[in-house]
Amino acid sequence: MQKIFALVDCNNFYVSCERAFNPGLEGKPVIVLSNNDGCVISRSNEAKALGVEMGIPVFQCEYLFRKHKMEVYSSNYTLYADMSRRVMDTLAEFTPEMEIYSIDEAFLSLAGFSSSNLVQYGRLIRTTVMKWTGIPVSIGIGTTKTLAKIANKIAKRNPEYGGVLDITGHPRPDSLLDKIAVSDIWGIGRNLASLLGRNGIYTALQLKNAPDAWIKKHMSVSGLRTAWELRGTPCISLDQAPISRKGILSSRSFGRPVETLSELKEAIATYVSRAAEKLRAQESASSFVSVFLTTGRFKKDNEHHTDSASSYLPEPSFYTPELISYAWQNLERIFKQGCLYKKAGVMLTGIVPQTEAQLNLLVHSRDNQKKRSLMKVMDCINTRWGRDTLQYAAAGTTRNWKMRQSKRSPRFTTNWSEIPVVKASFPRGLST
Question: How far apart are alpha carbons 147 and 183 in whole angstroms?
């Protein structure tokens, strides 16, 4: 049976999430900013047309925001993550095999479908996702994941395809590849694109037709796989089981400079809590905890200072209070009085499956079972009722140090106090 892949990609995902709960934003230029409102990380098509570049610092384009009256939002990752879950749950209804590639992309297996039905099925997926979640998507279909990526890119750029392109059913697929720059091919980075350009290879079609020996010599086996994928030979399988992380990092820049140990402890406890949640989600434990601190680089009145400290745990742990305790010990070792810290972070490494963790002879097994049960209950409550429904006092309550989000929209889907309210008005004389 021939393999068929569909790449479903949410259009301008963060902006689309904002529009899903504020239809008045349709047709307007909309911008979403990064942590601490520093850079542009998502743009509507209208904003792109006005010259707002991806990743540009806010201070460099504030004049454009004002000139064109753009709608500007802080990142609302809680909302975006929940909307991503809803999109992925919807996509799972259309295939038994799916790989979630990123927060706004997924590969679907459509093996078994006849070529005459692929575009129709893609449009059904697109319509359903829009109806159930309010998020517009583009769909590219190909015999390999690389071709599906290219088809998706073309579908997104060209309205005549109606958001769905099946490259397997196109009468002249090479004509499409000839219009794709090598820098736009999945897996081809800036350095490889430069190398290919110096050797006269500028398009996907030229790479597809390049000799295997030359590709392997200059681009290694991974480059050869890309070329074979362009020729329609699948080399990258569908990964339905995400690989467990070898290291988990939790870090944020502060909304203002932080100089007190107490506030830094709150921040570190918060970051450990986030990292521990991810650790338990993959049923792992960590045996090595690292903490780092850094000051701002451009403060003339404050000498730049950065430092880190690490420690081994007596036995691998997934228990948040224990991880916080070791992180605090590391923090106290590197804290420097008088420094204005701009950023802090926690890294959990030495990660092993919980079932393979080497236990300590001095710790009773019943203690570990109690810890496991407590963390399971806490994770279940926070998953059901929203992040931080239950949280650690060590992480503080006011958190004046947290990153700037002065333009953040409400967390419509995960916070009871921020659920959208619709007020109905009735003609005089009528009532509910």
Answer: 14
Residue 6: closest CA among 133, 89, 101: 101
Residue 201, token pair as written in the block: 């290879």
Token code pair at residue 370: 């109690």
Distance between CA atoms of 348 and 313, rounded to whole angstroms? 11
> Can you tell me the mean pLDDT for 162-171?
92
**Tally of CB atoms within 10 A around 315:** 16
CA-based Rg of the chain, rounded to a whole angstrom? 25
Does 286 lie in the same domain as 252?
A: yes
User: CA torsion sign, 383 to 388 to 394 to 400?
Assistant: positive
Residue 403's pLDDT band (cuts 50, 70, 90): low
Using DSSP, state whether 172 is helix, strand or coil: coil
196-232 b/e with 16+ CB inside 10 Å = b?
beeeebbbbbebbebeeeebeeebeeebbbbbbbbeb
Handedness of CA 312, 317, 322, 327 (dihedral sign): positive
Q: Under 8 Å CB-to-CB from 77, ≥6 apart: which residues? A: none
The tokens for 405 are 């989000």
Is 60 exceeded by the pLDDT of residue 311? Answer: yes
Q: Quick check: 288 pLDDT over 80? A: yes
* CA–CA gap between residue 121 and residue 102 (Å, rounded): 22
Higher pLDDT, 150 or 403: 150
- The DSSP code for 39 is B
Same domain for 332 and 344, yes or no, is yes
Among 34, 36, 33, 35, which residue's Cα sits nearest to residue 65? 33
Sheet holding 164-166, edge to edge: 98-102, 105-109, 5-10, 137-142, 164-166
Q: Looking at residue 391, what is its pLDDT?
A: 87
Under 8 Å between Cβ of 350 and 275: no
At 381, list the tokens.
Answer: 């409550």
142 lies in the same domain as 62: yes
In terms of domains, do 185 and 279 share one? no
Find all residues with CB under 8 Å of 338, minimum gap 6, and list them: 259
Domain coverage including residue 264: 248-395
Q: Given this model, what pLDDT does residue 302 score?
A: 56
In a domain, 406, yes or no: no
Q: Where are the alpha helices (DSSP H) in 22-144?
A: 45-49, 62-67, 77-91, 115-133
Checking if the pLDDT of 202 tops 90, the result is yes
Residues 158 and 193 reside in one and the same domain: no
CATH number at residue 117: 3.30.70.270
The CATH number of the domain holding residue 320 is: 3.30.1490.100
Tell me the whole-structure pTM to 2 decimals: 0.75
